[in-house]
Each structure stands twice: as C-alpha cells, then as structure tokens.
C-alpha cells in the first residue's frame, strides 16, 4: 500500500556566521538526522510530528529535535493521494523569520514512496536534466551536504521530473502542509500566515474538465454610472503600458486556468463579473480559498482596457457605433456607445484640448519676433450650402504646420446668420487670436472670398493680402472646360491645360509684381493665335522658344472670343494682381484631406466632438507634414503612379513618402490616464470640466409637441 504526499522545503542561510538552518513540516512517519562530524545517518520513526534540523558549520555538529503534534485518530486518509514536491531556491536570507521571493530557478518533482518512508530535502537545484541527473546535482559538490547519503530505492523509483514547466502558486511563497488535515494551504484552524499579492502569471491548471462548472453571469449587464466595479486606488494601481500587447482570448480557453484552486489545487468554481471589457474572475474552492483575478490593470478606479477602447476610437478618427458593433458581432465584450460618450466627455475631450493647446503654444512661440507668412482656408462639415460647422485653419509656411484653427457654428452669434458667413467669421477670430499672441503677420494668403477681401482691405490694411493660385487656376479650368463645349468653341479644348499652366508660370515669374503678372497673363489671348510679340509695355513678347506647329485658334472666332471673355473678366483681371508668388494653400488642402478621415462630412458630430477631432487631425498632420521621400535599399527614391480624377484619366507620378507616425497618440493617452488618476469618477471629472460650447442651433419660433407633429403627419401614398 503506497501513499503520495507533498512537503514544503525551505533553505535558509545566515551569511553573517556561515550557519545554515533547515526546517521542514510534513505529515509523515519518519525523519532523517545526519551528523556531519562522523558522516553517520540515523533514521527514527515516530508518530505524526514536526521536526527541525540545525547544522552549525563552526563545529560540524548537527542536532535534531522533534515535537509531537496531536492529530485526531479518526482522520481517514485515502489509500493514494498525489502531491507535488516543490523545491525552490531562496537567496540572501538574513534569519529564519525573513525570507526572500523565490527566484525563477525551480524544479517540481513528484514523489511516490511507501507510507512509512519520507525524505525532506533542502538544496539549490535546477529544473533541467533527467531524474538521475537531478539526484546527482542534488547531492553533488554544490550541495550544502558534504557527503552523499544513499536514498531508499522506493524514493529513486518514484521521482519524475515535470518537463512541462512549474505550476505557479497564488502567492510568492509556496503553501505549506497544513498541520491538521494533510492539505496544502490554510485549513481555517491553523494560525494565519502573511500572504503576498497574487502572482502576475496566470495559473497553469490541469486539463481535466470540472463537470460541476456552470458559470452564471448576466451577459447584458451594463455597469451603472459610477458603480462599474471600481476599486480603491491602493488596490488597483498596477503597472501598464499602452505599448503592451493585448490578445483575443476565448472564454472556454480562459476558464481552463481557473479549474483548480491555486492554493490547495482542489476543484474550484469561478464566478465572472464584467465591467465593459474588463473581466474579473473570482474562484472559491470547497476549503473556502478565494482568489480574484482581473483581466486588466486599473488606473484610478477605471479599467485601463475600457479607457483604451474609448481613447483609440476617438484618436484614430473612428466612428464609435460601427466599431463597437463590429466587436459585438464577434461576441467581444466591450463598452457601450453610451459609456464611450461618458469617457469622451469626462476624460478624452479635455485631454485633447490640453495636448493641442500645449503644442500650439510651442509653435506660436517659435514664430514670435519675426514677420510670418500665413495661409488660411475654411472647410465646411457637409457639402453644399447647408453646413453647420466651419473649420478655419491657419498654416505657417516656415514651420509647415497648422498653428491655429477656429470652429464656427452657424447662428451661434448675429455675425453668423447663415453658413455663407462662417468663413469670414473664422478668419476674423483667427487673426485676432494670433495678434493677441504677438504674431506679426506679414502676408496672408487665402482664396478669393469676397467677404474676406473686404475685411482685409478695410480692417487689416497693414497685412499683405494675397490669393492662392490653385484656387484661381481651378476656377479658370472649370470655366474653360465649360466654354469649350459651347457651339463653335471646340478649338478651345486643346488649350485648357496650356492656359492653366501659363497662369501658374505668371504668378511664379512675376516675383510679387502685380502689374507685371497682369501683363503676362493678358498675353495668353495673343499666344493662342500664334501672336508672340506686341503684347504690352511691361511684357512686350513671349519668352518661349519656337512654338512649332499647333492647332492655333483663329482670331475673332467664337473660341477666341470665349477665351478673352474668361481671361479678361473684370473681377478676375483685378484679382490676378494679388496672386501669391510663393505661399500657397496646398498645405491646407492636404490637411483637409486628413481632416476628412477624422471627421467625415457624412457623419454629424457635436460641437465638442467636431472640435476635438479637428485638433487630433491637426496633431496628426503636423507630426507627419515634414516626412521625407522614401528610398530603396540601394538609395534610389521611391515613386508611385496615380491617375487623379481631376486630370480626366491622365497618369502622373508622385513621390512615395516614409511611413506615418503616431507619437501624438502617446501624448494624448498619457494625458487621459493622468486625468483618470486625478478624477477617479465621471462625476468628479465632469464637475471640473468647464466647456466653452456655443448654444445649440434652434430654429426660429416655438417648437411644436410630438403629438401635434404626429397628428399633422401625412403620407404621399396610402398605407398598405
């Protein structure tokens, strides 16, 4: 008849006097005492006892004491119990009562011996090698035992090394044998011992399924406003990093780690609690050992995973509804859309505002003291003339960054009575803000907006107001393309691109001389008729070489008349003198493309949401605006081919830039976590927040009730 058992072995060494003390507690029938002075070994068999062996290296003596421990004689033990012998290394212990954490070197051997034979072993070993190599190293020269001691054959036959890895324990110290019932851990009657925090490694459990397992939790549970299983800060603050990897784990696979109690290895039943994406598992075994494990660390009183999900939804420019729906379709537990808006209002929007204000102040500080050339342009939140928001941005050509932006809402003030007035209002506010920051604006390049032209001429006469060439060329191209389709004007079609390129050249070659620019531009009406001299006093002749054979336009023909009407239009002839020779708004057009990714025109946002997404788009654009052209391993520049829609199928080549970066997300995430620590609850965070939001758009007149609207509702067709 055999019996399996487990011992807890501890090696303590006092480095001050070179003595070594060993203690072992086990429920067994024999003890081994060794005297190192004469190399003899004595074995005694007594009742259930507790033994301690002390070896003093100063005189080579060894003493052994045993104290009987009473145990009820009615205790029935199963004929065969399997236990695990845990041998762990401990270093730098100062006393018997002071022990350090076990190091990573450990070996777990399974002992199967006779009921009256046992051995308490303490040494420093590794988990590598087979059973005989393990015994050789156990009693080799590195062992504290000076001479090898023969072991019983039953013990040698029963040793088996588990190569699959150790089973992590719940605490930093392996559980000892209970003095009452031959089990691991605290039975409830023994004196309580100090425990350590749970190990960060998930426990490795056996593969046998527990047939009694039946998890019960409400899958539709949505945490309340401030009771989302939040814990005290002292209990939940853990180390975490945004760059830490996250994995999708199936519930059935995860629960395999909680089949057994991590203290006594008895079957345990886990109970689950969900707080958004955070899963908390609490296990309870028949011996009342309770352990709690959380799938996420906490920041303040919020699970970091919930904060991360809400953060990345906003910082990536994603729409929360389809993104969360996608994860729900996969049965991935996530926060609700309402909870996302709670996080956005309490933590995300203030964090975005703080990070943007910090970067804007740094950029504006770099511009103070020198004349600055700026460009400005507006972007509506929806196509057509029914926009609700206008984002007006200011671009610095020296920095290559957006240095300021203004968000205007229609009818927020008397000056913005309609959407057509929003662009001027954004320009006026932006210039006033930049002047308050001591920015000396030398030139300001915009499109040919009539209200802005009047404002700059009357209220900002000291600022050189220039017009963007791209907008002017865009308008000319559109008019020429439409004019070439008129009757008798088909000869104008081949000259559309040539005339547009000539306008680009005139703006660049004039060097800021408006009169010369206008004279060079007006010569195009003679050039298309193969007349290259006698244009004007400032620009008497064309500067190109022989033009060669082309499909020239006949002077006085309908095509020539249409071209002269477009090129010499009174309003355009006046504005062409103010075309910018250097600064353009193409940087702003690129930014608007980026903004479309963060705030699509097809999606409606609140005022704060629109402002935050605009700031994030600016952070992304500013970080990646100075990227270099990518090169191959051989050092050759990389290019890629495009067929722009505006060029009607023409193919062109563009430089391939280096990959975009997202370092701004780290700054945003750090600010969000800092706010979560400062304001642990939503109520505290919202109470501190002081948003500057204009009143919502309200239609004139009293709002009718829902009942009145329903009664007045009519259908075009009869209801089937």
UniProtKB/TrEMBL annotation:
Residues 29-76 have a biased composition (Polar residues). Residues 29-77, 189-242, 689-720 are annotated as: Disordered. Residues 209-218 have a biased composition (Low complexity). This is Putative crack-1 is transposable element.
């Amino acid at each position: 008849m055999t019996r399996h058992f487990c011992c807890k072995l501890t090696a303590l060494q006092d480095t001050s006097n070179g003595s070594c003390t060993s203690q072992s507690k086990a429920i067994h029938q024999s003890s081994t005492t060794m005297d190192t002075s004469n190399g003899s070994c004595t074995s005694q068999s007594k009742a259930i006892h507790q033994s301690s062996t002390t070896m003093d290296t100063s005189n080579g003596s060894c003493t052994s004491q045993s104290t009987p421990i009473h145990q009820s004689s009615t205790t029935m033990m199963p004929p065969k119990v399997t236990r695990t012998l845990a041998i762990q290394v401990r270093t730098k212990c100062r006393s018997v009562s002071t022990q350090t954490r076990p190091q990573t070197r450990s070996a777990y051997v399974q002992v199967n011996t006779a009921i009256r034979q046992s051995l308490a072993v303490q040494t420093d070993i590794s988990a590598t090698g087979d059973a005989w190599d393990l015994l050789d190293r156990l009693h080799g020269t590195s062992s504290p035992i000076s001479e090898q001691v023969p072991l019983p054959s039953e013990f040698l036959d029963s040793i088996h090394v588990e190569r699959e890895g150790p089973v992590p324990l719940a605490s930093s110290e392996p559980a000892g044998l209970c003095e009452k019932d031959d089990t691991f851990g605290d039975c409830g009657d023994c004196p309580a011992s100090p425990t350590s925090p749970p190990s960060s490694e998930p426990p490795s459990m056996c593969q046998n399924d527990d047939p009694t397992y039946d998890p019960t939790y409400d899958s539709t549970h949505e945490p309340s406003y401030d009771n989302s299983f939040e814990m005290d800060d002292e209990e939940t603050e853990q180390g975490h990093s945004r760059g830490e990897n996250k994995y999708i784990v199936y519930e059935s696979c995860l629960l395999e780690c909680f089949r057994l109690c991590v203290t006594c290895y008895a079957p345990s039943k886990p109970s689950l609690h969900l707080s958004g994406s955070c899963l908390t598992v609490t296990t309870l075994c028949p011996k009342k050992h309770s352990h709690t494990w959380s799938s996420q660390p906490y920041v303040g009183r919020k699970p970091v995973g919930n904060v991360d999900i809400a953060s990345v939804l906003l910082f990536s420019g994603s729409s929360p509804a389809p993104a969360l729906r996608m994860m729900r379709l996969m049965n991935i537990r996530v926060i609700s859309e309402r909870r996302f808006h709670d996080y956005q209002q309490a933590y995300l929007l203030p964090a975005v505002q703080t990070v943007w204000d910090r970067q804007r102040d740094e950029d504006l500080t770099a511009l103070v003291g020198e004349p600055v050339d700026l460009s400005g342009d507006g972007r509506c939140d929806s196509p057509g003339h029914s926009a609700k928001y206008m984002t007006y941005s200011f671009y610095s050509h020296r920095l290559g960054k957006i240095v300021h932006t203004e968000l205007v809402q229609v009818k927020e003030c008397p000056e913005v009575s309609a959407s057509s007035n929003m662009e001027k209002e954004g320009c006026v506010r932006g210039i006033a803000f930049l002047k308050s920051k001591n920015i000396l604006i030398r030139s300001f390049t915009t499109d040919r907006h009539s209200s802005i032209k009047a404002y700059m001429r009357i209220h900002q006469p000291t600022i050189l107001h220039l017009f963007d060439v791209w907008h002017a060329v865009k308008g000319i191209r559109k008019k020429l393309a439409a004019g070439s389709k008129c009757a008798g004007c088909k000869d104008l079609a081949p000259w559309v691109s040539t005339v547009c390129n000539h306008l680009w050249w005139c703006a660049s070659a004039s060097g800021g001389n408006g009169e010369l620019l206008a004279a060079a531009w007006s010569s195009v009406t003679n050039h298309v008729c193969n007349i290259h001299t006698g244009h004007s006093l400032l620009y008497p002749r064309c500067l190109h070489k022989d033009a060669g054979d082309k499909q020239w336009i006949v002077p006085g023909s309908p095509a020539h008349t249409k071209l002269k009407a477009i090129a010499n239009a009174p309003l355009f002839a006046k504005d062409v003198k103010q075309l910018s020779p250097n600064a353009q708004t193409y940087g702003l057009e690129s930014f608007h493309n980026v903004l479309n990714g963060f705030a699509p025109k097809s999606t409606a946002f609140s005022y704060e949401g629109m402002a935050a997404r605009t700031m994030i788009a600016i952070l992304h654009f500013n970080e990646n605006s100075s990227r270099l052209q990518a090169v191959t391993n051989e050092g050759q520049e990389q290019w890629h081919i495009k067929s722009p829609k505006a060029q009607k199928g023409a193919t062109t080549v563009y430089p391939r830039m280096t990959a975009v970066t997202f370092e701004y997300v780290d700054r945003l995430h750090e600010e969000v976590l800092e706010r979560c620590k400062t304001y642990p609850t939503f109520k505290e965070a919202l109470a501190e927040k002081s948003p500057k939001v204009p009143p919502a758009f309200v239609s004139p007149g009293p709002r009718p009730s829902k009942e009145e609207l329903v009664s007045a509702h009519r259908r075009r067709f009869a209801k089937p």
